[in-house]
Amino acid sequence: MPEWPEMENYRRLLGGLIVGKRITGTEVTREKSINLAPERFDKLLVGQSIRRVDRRAKHLLFELESGETLVLHLMLGGIICYGTLQEKPDRTVQVQISFGDRNLYLIGLRLGYLHVIPPEHLAETFAKLGPDPFDPRLTQGVFDELLAQRRGTLKSNLVDQSFLAGIGNCYSDEICFDAALLPERKPASLSREETVRLFHSMRRVLDEATSFGGYMELPLYPGDRLTGGFDSRCRVYDREGESCVRCGTAIERRGVSSKKSFCCPGCQG
């Protein structure tokens, strides 16, 4: 599932591709992916231009000049591609938004969605989300206070969107590895020095992953050499049996809080 770095990478790249461009058409092949009838969806979008592309947690927000916002959540298996009809990947497209001869292809939205949200309901849409990992109000002290209130494991808390917004299975493991902490550790067991490590690892890992384009497998557009660059840089996620880059111990896959998790038993404690 796309997480914070993947969606932030999309946000940055799409800003230079579609902001200011006028929507010339839409095509919906899966009505459950949108929250309006396709005819109404098309009528609302065609003729509008994208004022800005924003992100909240794992959501992309496309602000229309009408004031309404398209909220995209890719969920499991969702990807985005942008290009001409000839450049469209050989994948099933659930929603297509056209900008002249270029199209934004939303692929794999079997669980995901693209909803039109009026401005008065936008805050309500994200009301249950926790703070963004890079929110300037999320200081070390605030992070420590929030973490001290949590039960469960580090794994279950890092992926809990009401605690921190945007982290999922991959980066929760990568953050724990960077902080040299096992994902099954309980927040109450952490020392002050360990919570400091965790806080800085969270931001360091997400920043590095974003700078390398996240781990998505398909480029956003032809010639995109950034998207997916972090996949080969994952230290533990999906690396079961490989040697740890830090100590050489074999990476293990474990079940933590009913989720698959990868860690190094040699240097994570």
From TrEMBL:
**Source organism, top-level taxon:** Bacteria
Tell me the ranges covered by the FPG-type domain, including all copies: 235-269
Domain Formamidopyrimidine-DNA glycosylase catalytic positions: 2-106
Q: Which SUPFAM superfamilies match?
A: Glucocorticoid receptor-like (DNA-binding domain) (SSF57716), N-terminal domain of MutM-like DNA repair proteins (SSF81624), S13-like H2TH domain (SSF46946)
**Catalytic activities:** Hydrolysis of DNA containing ring-opened 7-methylguanine residues, releasing 2,6-diamino-4-hydroxy-5-(N-methyl)formamidopyrimidine
Please tell me whether the keyword Phosphoprotein is annotated for this protein.
Answer: no
A Pfam entry, by short name = H2TH
Q: Which InterPro entries does the entry link to? A: FPG_cat, FPG_N, H2TH_FPG, Ribosomal_uS13-like_H2TH, Znf_DNA_glyclase/AP_lyase
Q: Which UniProt keywords apply?
A: DNA damage, DNA repair, DNA-binding, Glycosidase, Hydrolase, Lyase, Metal-binding, Multifunctional enzyme, Zinc, Zinc-finger
Record's keyword annotation contains Ribonucleoprotein = no
- UniProt record similarity statement: Belongs to the FPG family.
Q: What is this protein called?
A: DNA-formamidopyrimidine glycosylase family protein
